[in-house]
Amino acid sequence: MAGYILKRLFFMIPTLFVISVLVFVIIQLPPGDYLETYIAELESQGESVDPDRVNFLRAEYGLDKPIYEQYFVWASGMLVGDYGYSFEYGLPVNEVIGDRLFLTIIISVVTIIFTWAIAFPIGIYSATHQYSWGDYGLSFIGFIGLATPNFLLALVMLYLANVYFGTSIGGLMDPAYIDQPWRIDKFLSVLEHLWIPVVVIGTSGTAGMIRRLRANLLDELQKQYVVTARAKGLQEKKLVRKYPLRMSMNFFIADIGSLLPSVISGAEITAIVLSLPTTGPMMLNALQSQDMYLAGSFLMFLAMLTVIGVMLSDILLAMLDPRIRLQGGATK
Amino acid sequence: MADILTIKNLQVEFDYHNSRIPAVRNISFRIPQGRTVALVGESGSGKSVTAQAIMQILPKKAHVTHGSIRFDDPENGNSAEIVSLDPMGRQMRAIRGGRISMIFQEPMVSLSPVHTVGNQISEALLLHRDVSKSEAMRLSQDMLDRVGFPDPKRAINTYPFELSGGLRQRAMIACALVCRPAILIADEPTTALDVTIQAQILKLISDMQRELNMAVLLITHDLGVVANVADEVVVMYHGQIMESGMIEDIYRNPSHPYLKALMKAIPHFDMKPDERLTPVRHIESSVGELLRIDVDRELQANPVHLEVRDISKSFRIKKNPIFGKSAAPEIKAVSGIGFDVYRGECFGLVGESGCGKTTLSKILMKALSPDEGNIVYYDKTGQQGVDVLALEGDELFKFRRKMQFIFQDPFSSLNPRMTVFDIIREPLLIHEIGDLDYQREFVKELVRVVGLDPRFLNRYPHSFSGGQRQRLGIARALALKPDFVICDEPVSALDVSIQAQILNLLKDLRKELGLTTIFITHNLAVVNYIADRVGVMCRGRLVEIADRDSLFENPVHPYTQALLGAVPHPDLAKPLDFDSALESQASDPASWSAPFRCDESASLELHEIKHGHRVLREA
Predict the structure, then answer these.
(1) Which is nearest to B545 in space by CA: B568, B566, B518, B565?
(2) Yes or no, beta carbons of B161 and A235 under 8 Å apart
(3) Overall average pLDDT of the B325-344 stretch
(4) Tell me, what DSSP letter sits at residue B181?
(5) By the 8 A CB rule, do B52 and B102 touch?
(6) If DSSP codes are grouped into helix, strand and coil, which group holds residue A318?
(7) A131 chain-B contacts, CB cut-off 8 A
(8) Average pLDDT rounded to a whole number, residues B65-89
(9) Given CA atoms B405, B510, B454, B430 in this order, what sign does their dihedral have?
(10) CB-based contacts of B345: which residues, under 8 Å, 6+ apart?
(11) Are B605 and B616 in contact (CB under 8 A)?
(12) Cβ-nearest to B127 among A223, A232, A328
């Protein structure tokens, strides 16, 4: 098993390398670079631009070098934690992203936990009480959750939170705490605001997961080994936990790989509506203005999460399911 | 003997929309201590529902509406009325698995694939006995030893998918017996197993029965199995008991017409050459004009229709790059197989599961390509053979018309989203035969040929029974008017009564249309009924080949002998020799006695001992 984990870690290296090349090529694909966009913008406003200064900037940022050299500088910088320089903000990418990354991770982790905590009991209940009123009711609510656009739900929740709890509209904390050092009351303020985006972002995911868990569990509940266990005299609750639930976990674990990036990227529109200080809105903006190092870092960040998520789910699957651990695939 | 289970006037009904359909109607029987009662019937006759009612594990839609099931525990004299207990209550759970245990038909799916064998066996102990975990594991290991695991210590930590079908069923039995129940309910325990394994499992069950003084309720449709192990027989049909009594009375003197009919529907070894099976329900089939047009197939100078030479095929277990299993063993699925199939005959290919018969059939159809060997097909018009394996493109496409295939599973071999008409017409469309009017007429005729009503052409496969679907599969195979048909276990998924229908149909069609067929099966009685010549396969090799009578009267190869010896006859005068079945390692080529022994050093070849009777041995 340890060997497997090591190998799996090793496989991440070429994967991430290929992704980094792709990301770099993609952000270089649109014609021109940040400076040209910037100049065009200035000229459209009637301001003149000193060509010397442009050339100086271009040399300063290495934009005049061939593309592979630019890639090399960027990629090797990333290895030591230097993500490059954001033109738009005039700051190193690290400093631009820093706090936002932290808040994004908090929101994502809390959302995932929220999703699981709600989806699991409901999914199990729905499957074991198929076609009961409880199942119908929960399925109905689930479908509403699936069908409601996130931004709409966000607006409704903002209104309700403001009217009934007096929470300030938008943001992840009271405006007074923005750019303040972390203190206990700032933390409390974050908690007070956090539940809205968590509910908004988590709803559709929760609803989807309930449906999938229900379907998977229903399949497993039909299986012969469940009858075998029942014939042993096992209590129904223990039985469901030990056999079918365990078997229906595979899909759920395989889901982790796509869960991390989808929670983070799926939250972007919501983040804009709620004006959350997370990474989503910033990434959209960086892509629009060709702020290449910032955009590249974001994309790499998402890719890294995907790769780590897939690796985690692979390792968990191998631990959980002996068929994956012990059987090699036979081919014709 | 005291009766430990008494069933009186039991009625079980299923909710179906707003009405209730009875599945078990007013049945009464009893199970005496230490005896075996066989519950016999076709699928859908209510045998399994009866067992589920005893265990209180009926599906949600089913209810016991009437009657009683009394269980008198011989251990402590307690008596319980099972019907009145709460199915999920403490008392019922103590009986279920503790005092009455059950084993199921499919050893492949009856055990959880993600829990170890030890875990699943000891679970029953932990539920019903006051033992510690380590004690439970020790007892489980003990039990595995008793049910014949070669290495119980290792077996306890294996997962079910690492075991063969026979060992899985043994694990299942260990699971059921570890708590020393008073009654074991065995629901078709050997139906999914090969005959030699079946004999071993039946022997194991009766040994354990004697040891634990346990009653067995054996549910089966196989009258051969019943004849060999049961003390009493209960025959069910449509949820009702047709006949019940001691085995001697039932077999020597069946009185109910249903049982008589059932007995006549089973192929056995003492059939006269022209004797026909009588299906329980008859089907009318008639070959019409469109199909008959080509039936002018007089024998040619060259009687050989298909020539198979030295076919070998290996599969490689994919090397697992992640877990780094170093050796990638090559498995010889088929090695050095050669035989001729003569025009118009039925060539039976017999062997246990995994012996390579299906692989071979796929190679013949060019669905798989062999590593070596060649296949020559002789057309009825010319002497010049066609090298089947070299065919490609247009020639292969044209050749496809000549050879067709009938599949084992009538459920998965018909597309559920196509109507019957579309399914049978599809080959005609692919090969662009005729216009719509012709196709419609021809499809109607094909459906009549297999004894179905052409009015059903617009229905979908799900509205047909297993036997009817298999007939649709046959109609589809005939649509291209093939000369050669390969039937891969066409009756093994069907009930005995249906089996007789299909076998008779295939027999008649072969005669009327002059078809050459290869009939693949694991059932020796079936092959005896339908085949003219028989090849016996084991571990990818053809070990014996002969015409039917020589093979069944004078089997030479030890494997053939073991195979024939393990078939349970539905005849009390011919009991199975269980001891030799348990001892035999017949399917292991290394254990065959000289000169048949097959190991690295041996150079074996098919040796002719009589005209047309050849056997694999050292030259």
Answers:
(1) B518
(2) no
(3) 79
(4) -
(5) no
(6) helix
(7) none
(8) 89
(9) positive
(10) B516, B517, B532, B533
(11) yes
(12) A232
On the 0-12 / 13-18 / 19+ scale of CB atoms within 10 A, B435 is exposed
pLDDT of residue A93: 81
Residue A176 per-residue DSSP state: G
> For an interface test with A, which of B111, B114, B187, B219 has the most A Cβ atoms less than 10 Å from its Cβ?
B114
Cα torsion angle, B40, B43, B47, B52, sign: positive
Amino acid identity of B21? I
CA dihedral A162, A168, A170, A174 (to 10 degrees): -150
For residue B319, which residues of chain A lie inside 8 Å, CB to CB? 328
Cα gap A11→A5, rounded to integer Å: 10
- Cα dihedral sign for B206, B208, B213, B215? negative
pLDDT over 90 percentage in chain A: 5
User: Are A234 and B93 within 8 A, CB to CB?
Assistant: yes
Helix (H) or strand (E) holding A85: strand A85-86
Provide the pLDDT for residue A85. Answer: 77
Question: Which has the closest alpha carbon to B212: B184, B190, B246, B231?
Answer: B184
A263, A201 in Cβ contact below 8 A?
A: yes
Residue in A closest to B124 by C-alpha: A232
Burial of B156 (0-12, 13-18, 19+ CB in 10 A): buried
Q: Cβ distance A280 to A268 under 8 Å?
A: yes
For residues A130 and A122, what is the distance between their CA atoms, to the nearest angstrom? 12
Task: Specify the length of chain A in residues.
Answer: 332
Q: Which two tokens stand for residue B99?
A: 């005092």
Asked if A326 has any chain B CB less than 8 Å from its own CB, the reply is: yes
For chains A and B, CB pairs below 8 A equal 102
* Calpha distance A154→A138 (Å, rounded): 21
**CA atoms within 13 A of residue B321's CA, in its CB half-sphere:** 4
Residue of B nearest to A319 (CA): B114
Question: Which of B102, B115, B316 lies closest to A231 in CB terms?
Answer: B102
**Rounded distance, CA B61 to CA B68, Å?**
19
| Chain B touched by A14 (CB under 8 Å) | no
pLDDT tens, position by position, A109-133: 888 888 889 988 999 999 998 888 9
Taking Cα atoms as reference points, which of A117, A190, A127, A151 lies closest to residue A268?
A151
To the nearest whole Å, the CA of A54 is away from the closest chain B CA by 52
Least confident of A86-100, B28-42, B361-375, B487-501: A86-100
Contacts with B320 from chain A: Cβ below 8 Å: 328-329
Query: Beta strands A91-92 and A85-86: pairing type?
Result: antiparallel
Percent of chain B exceeding pLDDT 90 equals: 38
Option in B55, B106, B115 nearest A231 (CB): B55
Sequence-distant (6+) residues with CB within 8 A of A142 are: A122, A206, A207, A210, A211
| Residue A21 reports pLDDT greater than 50 | yes
Q: Does B111 contact A231 at a Cβ distance shorter than 8 Å?
A: no
Is the Cβ pair B323, A328 closer than 8 Å?
A: yes
* Mean pLDDT across A220-227: 89
Chain A stretch 236-295, residues whose beta carbon is closer than 8 A to a beta carbon of chain B: 236, 242-243, 246-247
Give me the residue from B97, B113, B162 closest to A231, CB to CB: B97
Q: What are the φ/ψ torsions at residue B110 (nearest 5 degrees)?
A: -85, -10
CB A101 within 8 Å of CB A192: no
**B323 pLDDT exceeds 60?**
no
Cβ–Cβ of B88/A235 closer than 8 Å? yes
- Yes or no, beta carbons of B318 and A331 under 8 Å apart: yes
Please enumerate in sequence order all residues whose Cβ is within 8 A of that of A282, keeping only pairs 6 or more positions apart, or say none.
A96, A97, A100, A294, A298
